[in-house]
Amino acid sequence: MSDEPGRAQRPARLLTQNSQLKEIGVWNWTIPAWAGRFDDGTTYNTCPSAGICSKVCYARSGAYLWPQVRGKHQANLRFVLDDPDGFEEAMIAELGARRFHGKWIRVHDAGDFFSDDYTLRWMRIMRARPDSHFYAYTKELDRFRRLVSPDPPPNFLWTFSLGGTQDADLDPETDRMADVFPSEEAIAAAGWHSQLGDDRLAVLGEAPVGMSANRIPKFLNLLDGRRFSEWQAQENERRAAKKKRKTGSE
Ligand code: SF4
Q1: What is the pLDDT of residues 58-79, one digit of tens each?
Q2: Which candidate in 26, 126, 185, 210 could, as Cys together with 153 as Cys, close a disulfide (CB 3.0–4.6 Å)?
Q3: How remote is the CA of residue 19 from the centroid of ligand 1, in Å?
Q4: Ligand 1: residue whose CA is nearest its atom 1
Q5: Residue 36: enclosing H or E segment and its boundaries?
Q6: How far apart are CA 116 and CA 144, in angstroms?
């Protein structure tokens, strides 16, 4: 925690491990998912390119909503927003510890690369810590095309996850993609490759990558047997038709 005037409070530890990632020795940085409000009333959106995924977001249910967990994730985001230089310095410093050498860091258990500035800070952090490996799922296609793909840090891999507002611009020939399916059987039937058992398969295994939907009954009802990509395409068509009707009636 910083005592300097004008500097945000630095969370005691920036990187954590949830039970799934702990099993495979992966560390993780996270901020809250999608749109929310801090206690002082200010709002945020950490997933500006989220589409239908926000309706069934795993990180907006269960343990993620426990006050202690939500408070920790919001404190991380507050630190980034209030003191971006402090965040960058602190993350580089923390990653200097021996326990992170040779290890994988998942950037965002929830949330995404929500701004150009924040993305560029992560690129500098990764370059400053070449002894660690970093990976991420992202829906920020345009931002990555502009800021990351032309010259990525050599220790960073990512996959574009479907179910976002930029799905239609992805190129299956060149972009590594991950889709959420209703079940493991559906992944296999489509000829995609499951990352079950080791989350790093999202970037290290065969592509395209399949993930099985969270088994939360209300989410499975909404998913209605579809893949995220299918649901997003239907949503895009519905919106386009609505817009056309509106334009036609003007
Ligand atoms: S991008 Fe990920 S964290 Fe954000 S709303 Fe979608 S599923 Fe949730």
Answers
A1: 999 999 999 999 999 999 999 9
A2: 126
A3: 20
A4: 50
A5: strand 35-37
A6: 9
Our measurement of the distance from residue 43's CA atom to the centroid of its chain's CA atoms, rounded to an integer in Å, reads: 19
Q: Mean pLDDT for each consecutive 10-residue tract of the chain (250 residues)?
A: 57 93 96 95 97 95 92 96 97 98 97 98 98 98 98 98 98 97 97 96 98 94 97 96 84
Domain assignment of residue 219, given as a range: 19-249
Residue 104 to residue 187: CA distance in whole angstroms: 25
Q: Is residue 2 part of a domain?
A: no
Task: Report how far ligand 1's centroid is from the alpha carbon of 217 (Å).
Answer: 18
Q: Please name the residue that has the structure tokens 């479907």.
A: 162
Amino acid at 182: P
Query: Is residue 224 in some structural domain?
Result: yes
Phi and psi angles of residue 39, each rounded to the nearest 5 degrees, phi first: -60, -30
Beta-bridge partner residues of 16: 28
How many domains would you assign to the chain? Answer: 1
Rounded to two decimals, the pTM is 0.94
User: Does the C-beta of 50 come closer than 6 Å to ligand 1?
Assistant: yes
Atom of ligand 1 nearest to the CA of 110: 3
Nearest atom in ligand 1 to the alpha carbon of residue 60 is 8
Kindly tell me the sign of the dihedral angle through the C-alpha atoms of 138, 206, 163, 54.
negative
Atom of ligand 1 nearest to the CA of 54: 5
Name the maximum alpha-carbon separation found in the chain.
64
Ligand 1 neighbourhood includes 59 CB (under 6 angstroms): yes
